[in-house]
Amino acid sequence: MESWILWFLFVLAIAAGWWLGRRERKKPQSLELGLRYLLNDQQDQAVAALVGELEFLSDNVETHLALGGLLRRRGELERAVVVHESILSRTPLDTKTRHQVEIELARDYLQAGLLDRAEALSLKLARENPKYQTESLKITLSIYEQEREWQKAIDTAKLMVGGENQLQIDDAISHYYCEQAEQQFGKGDIAAARVAISGATGHLSTNPRVSLIQAKMELHEGRFEQAIKVLKRLPEQDVDFVPEALLLLKKAYQLGGFELDDYRQFLESCLTKTASISIVLAVAEIVKEVQGDEAAAKYIANYLKKNPTIRGLTQLIDLHVENAHGISKQNLYILRSFAEALAADKPAYRCIECGFEGKRLNWRCPSCKKWSSTRPIFGLEGE
Ligand SMILES: [Zn+2]
Questions:
Q1: Is the dihedral of CA 299, 304, 310, 314 positive or negative?
Q2: What is the 8-class DSSP label of residue 114?
Q3: Among 158, 218, 304, 355, which residue has the least CB neighbours within 10 Å?
Q4: Mean pLDDT across the chain, nearest whole number?
Q5: How far away, in angstroms, is 362 Cα from ligand 1 center?
Q6: Distance of alpha carbon 290 from the chain centroid
Q7: Ligand 1 centroid to 240 CA: how many Å?
Q8: What is the structure's pLDDT at 103?
Q9: From ligand 1's centre to the CA of 355, what distance in Å?
Q10: Could you tell me the distance, in angstroms and rounded to a whole number, from the CA of residue 179 to the centre of ligand 1?
Q11: Is the pTM of this model over 0.90?
């Protein structure tokens, strides 16, 4: 058992004993039991026994708050709610203490998934007490994110503008607008999607997601030149996200009938800023179309000498397999299956905040819930 939890339970038990002694009441059996469990290092039973003492401890709000917080951290959300609600219902409280209990209760509700109650309480607190405004708005935002209520999230986050972590808030607002744009685009409402995109740009013009969504919309509307223009902003926004744009870019160049040489020049300029195998392979594809397999293989091999990756090796083998014969061809197939096995099930993205890894790009980490924290993985098994 963690020492602070043990320490807390000791203090709680001593406080309860002192209070009961002062009131000259007979010490309840469950309190004794709680102490005994504590001494035997039986945390679960100790908490259960001490929670049973609530009615005897009704004038000790701090102890209740500490117990409620402990229960929430242990994941015992129902009991945390009972403790905090019991303080509100049993004790006449001054405004400051009531707000202190209410913010704890709002946190309980949020974690327990009681989103309506969490929303009502956090909105009330944000209105009533400036001290808890930021925390309450954070709870409210978290609810709207879970419910995918993007307009409400935008409106709430805007109330936090000017406070701490300004960049983080702008980043989140920009993503809320992106979510909204994707929703509208999915429904075919391009005009509304464009309004959302300009909202996203207005809050964080360096968000690469904005360019990717806008390019999809431009392509959809046959505005190929505009799509290319938008995607060419990516290296300035975040060059590591250029690989996400490769399919869109190639499509825009091909459908628009533009020179692939311009596409190649753009990709090569990106390679001076990032060591991305996806970009190298995109250039190699153009080299193959213009100069053939041998030139493409040479291009990839040159790159692999400096930045070896399994994906690059696999592509290199593919280019050689076509022109190999007999035993050489068979050996290349064996080599390829090894390379494929090495790369199989390897994650492509990692959250820089919590380390969560996955095969697809999440703009909001599914684990730590941070926006823009997931990035492509570079190295032998990645980009
Ligand atoms: Zn994370």
A1: positive
A2: -
A3: 355
A4: 86
A5: 10
A6: 42
A7: 18
A8: 94
A9: 6
A10: 19
A11: no
376 alpha carbon – ligand 1 mean position (Å): 13
The DSSP element (H or E) to which 66 belongs, if any, is helix 61-73
Instruction: Count the neighbouring beta carbons within 10 Å of the beta carbon of residue 187.
Output: 10
Tell me which residue has tokens 């823009």.
372
Distance 356 CA to ligand 1 centre (A): 5
Best CA proximity match to 382, nearest among 344, 338, 347: 347
Place of tokens 């989140």: 172
pLDDT by residue (tens digit) across 351-375? 999 999 999 999 999 999 999 999 9
Cα 382 to ligand 1 centroid, rounded to whole Å: 18
Maximum Cα–Cα distance across the chain = 97
Cβ-contact 359, 325 below 8 angstroms: no
CA of 366 to the centre of ligand 1 (A): 7
For residue 367, how far is its CA from the centre of ligand 1 (angstroms)? 5
CB 346 within 8 A of CB 382: yes
Average pLDDT over residues 215-233: 96
CA of 358 to the centre of ligand 1 (A): 11
Distance 198 CA to ligand 1 centre (A): 27
Q: Kindly calculate the radius of gyration of the chain based on its CA atoms and give it in whole angstroms.
A: 29
Residue 373 phi/psi, 5-degree rounding, is -95, -10
**Beta-bridge mates of residue 349:** 358, 376
Ligand 1 centroid to Cα of residue 168, in Å, is 14
Could you report the per-residue pLDDT of 92-103, keeping only the tens digit for each? Answer: 888 888 999 999
Tell me the C-alpha distance between 383 and 71, whole Å: 44
Q: How far is the CA of 73 from the centre of ligand 1 (A)?
A: 19
Residue 166 CA, ligand 1 centroid: distance in Å: 20
| CA dist., res. 301 & res. 313, Å (int) | 8
User: For the chain, which residues make up each domain, given as ranges?
Assistant: 224-274
- DSSP secondary structure, 287-354, as one string: HHHHH-HHHHHHHHHHHHHHS--HHHHHHHHHHHHTT--HHHHHHHHHHHHHHHHHHTT--SEEETTT
Spatial distance between the Cα atoms of 101 and 120, rounded to a whole number of angstroms: 15
